[in-house]
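TODO from last week: model CODH nickel-insertion accessory protein (CooC-1).
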Amino acid sequence: MTVIAVAGKGGTGKTLVSALLINFISEHTTSVLAVDADPDSNLPEALGVEKQVRKTLGEIRELFQVSRDEMGSMNKEQWLEGKIYAEAICECPRYDLLVMGRPEGEGCYCFANSLLRGVLKRLMRHYEYIIIDTEAGLEHFSRKTIDSADYIIIVTDMSRKGLATAKRIKELASELKLNFKKIFLIANRIASEDAEKTIREFAKEEGLELLAVLPYDSSVAEIDLRGEPVSKIDKNSEVYRKMKDVANLMLNLSAKAR
C-alpha cells in the first residue's frame, strides 16, 4: 500500500494535482482509493464523478451521532464500516472515491472521529494506492490525521502565503516526527523564467525535492472555472505531460519500496 497526500495552501492547485495523479495512476491499477479530505469537496467535480457521490463521511458521522444510542450491543466500528462501504464509497470505473465532507450538527465529534480513523485505516489496507486531496493549510498535520502517508506532495504557487505554507509543512513534519518517506514540492501556475528560478532556489534552500514546475495555462484555468473534469485537459499541454511524469515517478517509487 502506498499513501500519497497532496497538501498546501488553498487555491494553489492541490485538487488539480490530486485529480491528475488519480487519473494517471488508475490507468495502471484499479486498486486505487481517492480521498477528498477537504471540507470544500472539489475533487469529485475535478474527476467528473460528483453525481455518483451518495454520502460523505461527514453525513455518516452525523447519522452515527443520532443512531449510536440505539445500537445496543452492536459493534460500533462494524456499524460504521458497513455504512461507509454501503453508502460512502463511490465505485468509479477505475478507482474508488471517498469524500470526507463536513458535519452539519453541533456538539463534540471526538468519539466518532476516533472510530472513523480506525475504520479508515482498516479500509485503506485493501488498496494498492491511496491518494488524498488534503484540507488546505496545516491543521491536518498538527492533528496527525495523515500520519500514515508515505509521500507528501506540497503544491505551491508564487504567492508569499503559498511558499510560507510549504515551508511550515516541512517544519511541522520534522517537529512532530512524522516519518514520511519523502516530502516533494510542485510549483503551479509559474508564468516566467524568473519565477521558476525563484521556486528552484526556494526548494533548494528548504531541502524540498522539486517534482515539477507547472506553467500557467489559460486553457487549464478555463476548464477549472467551468467545473469540467481534468480529463478535458489537452493531452499535449505541458501541465498534462509533466503531471504524467510525476505519476510515473510515484509508481516507480512505490514499486521499489515493495
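Done. The mean pLDDT is 87.
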